[in-house]
Amino acid sequence: MPSAAYLLHRRAFQESSAIIECFTEDQGIVSLVARGIKRARSRWFGLMQPFLLLQINWVGKTELKTLTQVDSPGLQ
Questions:
Q1: pLDDT digits (tens, 9 = 90+) for 23-72
Q2: Contact residues for 45 (Cβ-Cβ < 8 A; gap 6+)
Q3: Which of 24, 27, 31, 41 is the most exposed place for a label (fewest CB within 10 A)?
Q4: Do the beta carbons of residue 56 and residue 1 sit within 8 Å?
Q5: What pairing do the DSSP bridges indicate for beta strands 64-71 and 28-34?
C-alpha cells in the first residue's frame, strides 16, 4: 500500500544509489535506500527532489529499508 511522503534529504550511496529520508503520514521519518536513482535512465531520476509530495512503497524489516516504488501525484 503506497504511503504519502515528502522527501526531506538525499545523500549519495555507492555509485548509482542514494539514501533518502522521507516524512510519511503513517511512519514518521523513514530512511530508505533508493537503488539506481542517480542514473539518467532511471524512471525515478526526476522525482527525487526535496519537499515534493510522493507516493512511495518500500520493503525491509531493519531500520534502513529499500524503496520499491515512487509516484508523484502532483506532477500528473
A1: 998 889 999 999 988 887 777 777 788 888 889 999 999 999 999 998 87
A2: 37, 38, 39
A3: 41
A4: no
A5: parallel
